[in-house]
Amino acid sequence: MSEGTDDAESRLGRIERLLETGEREAAPAWRRATRGEPRWAVTAVILVAVALQLMLPHRLALQPFWLLPALELALLAGLTAANPRRVEPRTRWLRLLGLALICLVSLANGWSAARLVVGLVDGTEGTDAGPLLLTGGGIWLTNVIVFALWYWEWDRGGPMARACGHQQFADFLFVQMQSPEVAPPDWEPRFLDYLYLSFTNSTAFSPTDVMPLSRWAKMLMMLQSSVSLVTVVLVVARAVNILH
Fold first, then answer.
1. Range with the lowest mean pLDDT among 1-5, 55-59, 89-93, 206-210?
2. Choosing a second label site near 92 at 20 to 30 A (CA), which of 12, 79, 98, 145?
3. Domain for residue 27, yes or no?
4. Bridge partners (DSSP) listed for residue 172
5. Is residue 110 over pLDDT 90?
6. Residue range 99-124: mean pLDDT, rounded
7. What is d(CA 89, CA 169) in angstroms, rounded to the nearest whole number?
8. What is the tens place of the pLDDT at every residue in 228-242?
């Protein structure tokens, strides 16, 4: 009797394991544990942001103007040395290092944007249309990169948490999540997807094909649209006034 019971329990356990395996295989890639995404894209974009900061007029940067870009490059070098090929979950300090890097990029660009806006309002900035448009364009593009980094770092706990499949509920709803038949079975959002989200939000001043689901995502997109709108309106209006 006990042997029959043990056999039945063993068969039941095997069935349950098979069902669990089937469920894991049927789940989309963005909901299950996968390999970390390649690091090259986010590294290249951060280098572009640092270059844009160094190209801005030094009077708009925190002094000394080279300090924040140097710290950003040091943090980026540390992250790349720890995870040279892929953004993979290893230690908690890597995520803290990544957040510190994004905070520095945000601080540098936010300071430059604020100085530019104050200068435009006071009439101390924007005496020549060409340099003004280049400066405003650099700040605007860096702003796109900054918010792309925040979206990428916070969606479902960040890239390392997404690789582990820890959080099942997304903060951003991509088209491939709604219509999985239009994407490969191993599709999951990567940094370039968040960069596209940030760019379209900065140009359309509203969501396009990617919908924010959580409250923090909605508030962050609203903040980005506001910053982009103020920057574009003031810079373009001043440039048009100079040309006239």
1. 1-5
2. 145
3. no
4. 212
5. yes
6. 90
7. 19
8. 998 888 888 888 777
Overall number of domains in the chain? 1
Domain hosting 96: range is: 33-243
For residues 49 and 198, give the distance between their C-alpha atoms in angstroms, rounded to a whole number: 14
Residue reference for tokens 């999951």? 188
Question: Is the omega angle on the peptide bond into residue 64 within 30 degrees of 0, that is, cis?
Answer: yes
**Is residue 145 a contact partner of residue 198, using CB atoms and an 8 Å limit?**
yes
Asked if residue 112 is part of any domain, the answer here is: yes
CA distance 102 to 187: 26
Q: Please name every residue paired with 211 in a beta bridge, in sequence order, or none if there are none.
A: 173
Identify the residue whose tokens are 């100085």. 115
**Rounded to whole angstroms, what are the CA distances from 147 to 17, 151, 223, 240?**
42, 6, 10, 28
Helices of type H across 83-214: 92-122, 129-154, 159-164, 175-178, 191-204
Q: What angle do CA 27, 30, 36 make, to 5 degrees?
A: 125
Q: Is 28 domain-assigned?
A: no
Task: Say if 95 falls within a structural domain.
Answer: yes
29-65: b (≥16 Cβ within 10 Å) or e = bbbeeeebbebebbbebbeebbebbeebbeebbeeeb
Nearest CA to 144 out of 197, 222, 99 is that of 197
Relative orientation angle of helices 40-55 and 92-122, to the nearest 10 degrees: 30
Task: Compute the average pLDDT of residues 197-216.
Answer: 92
